[in-house]
Structure prediction request, 409 residues.
Amino acid sequence: MRSAASFKLGLSHTTDADSAWKVEAVKQVEYHVIAARDLFALKSTQLLDSCSAAPLTRGDRRLIIIDANVDRIHGDRIRRYFEHHGVDAHFVPMRADETVKEWSSVIRVVDAMNGFGIDRRREPVIAIGGGVLLDVVGFAASVYRRGTPYIRIPTTLIGLVDAGVGVKTGVNYAMGKNRLGTYAPAIATYVDRAFLRTLDDRHLSNGLAEILKMALIKSVDLFELLDTYGPRLIADNFQGTSGELDTAATQVIAESIHLMLEELQPNLWESCLERCVDYGHTFSPTLEMEALPALLHGEAVGIDMALTSALGFLRGSLGSADLDRILTVMKQLGLPVWNDVLDKTGLLDAALADTVRHRDGRQRLPLPVGIGGHHFANDVTPGEIASALKLLSRKNAELGEPTVSRVAS
Prediction:
C-alpha cells in the first residue's frame, strides 16, 4: 500500500469519460490506556503529564461531560482538583443510562461543545462516567467538526474493562442496540479503580460479566481468579483492602484489559467480523433492548453467555462439569442466567437474524470450547436454540438466585 507521502495523481486516459483516480492512504492510530491510582487526588499529576498526546497545564481550558450521579458523589473532589492545578474546567452533568442512550443526548453534548467554543485540536473533551456516557461523548466528539479529540475517565467496572478501552462509540436507535455510531478512539483512557469504591454490587457484577467473557473465551487462568476471588472482590469494591485482594483486583482488571486489547488491536475497524470478543453479544443486544430497563448491559451479556454455554454443551464442545461450573461462577458473581424475556416467542430467533445482518450474512457465533477456548458456528438452528433454552431453564431452577446481593442503582 502506498503511503500518503508517495501518492501521485495521474490520468489513465486523455478523455474525461475514461479518467480514473485511485487514492491509497494510511492513517496511524495510537491511543493510550493508562492505569491510575486516585487520579483526582490533589497531589496526583497523572492527568497532567502521563500522556504526552494530551498534556494539561495551568491556564488550559477543559469541557467536562460528567455523569450526573458521578457528579453528585465525586463532583466536589474533581472540581477541587482542576482548581488546584489552575485549569479552567466547565462541567456539564448529564443523566446517562441505557434509557437515554439516544441521539438527543449526543446533540446535548454537541451543543455543549459548540457553546464552549472548543478548540478543534488543542482542547480535548473529558468524559467522566460509565459506559453509556463514554459512548455518547465519544460519538459526539467524533462528529463535531468531523472529529474532536476526547479523553475517557470511566467510573464503572464495565467502563474500565470494556467501554473505555476500545474505539467504538454509539447510541441506540429504534429498538437497535448501538445502531448509530462511529469508530473513534479516545486520546487516552485513565483506568482508576478508586471510583469503584462507591459502586453498588449490581454494577460491579455488571462489569464482571465482560471480564468473565474474556476468561471463558481466552483464559482459564482469569476464570480461576474469578472463581477464587470474585465474590470477595465485589465485597471489597475492588479496593484491595488487603495485600491478597489488591493483587487479585489488579490482576483481574489488568488481564481483562490486556486480553481485550490483544483481540482489538489487529482488528480495530472490524474488517474481520469473526470476533471472539462478540461472545455473549449475539442474543444480548435484543434481550437488553426488549427488557429495558430491567437488564443492565452486562446482565444481558451474562444471560447470552449462559445460553450459548448450554448450546456449546449440547454441541459437545463443553462438558457437563464445565457447564455447571460456568453457571455456578456466574451466580457467585451476582449475574442472572435467566430473565423472563426469554419466554417471548420468536425473540431469540429474531435476535439471531438481526445479528446475522450485523455480521454480514453469517452467524459467526462464538461458542466455548471448554473453559478458556472458543470456536465459531454458522449453522445454529432454531431447534438447537430451543433445546438450549430448555436446558438453561432447568439449570437456572436448580441453581437458584445469585449469591451476591442485588442493590438497586
Remarks:
- Strands lie at 32-36, 61-67, 88-94, 125-129, 150-154, 171-173, 176-180, 188-192, 365-368, 374-377.
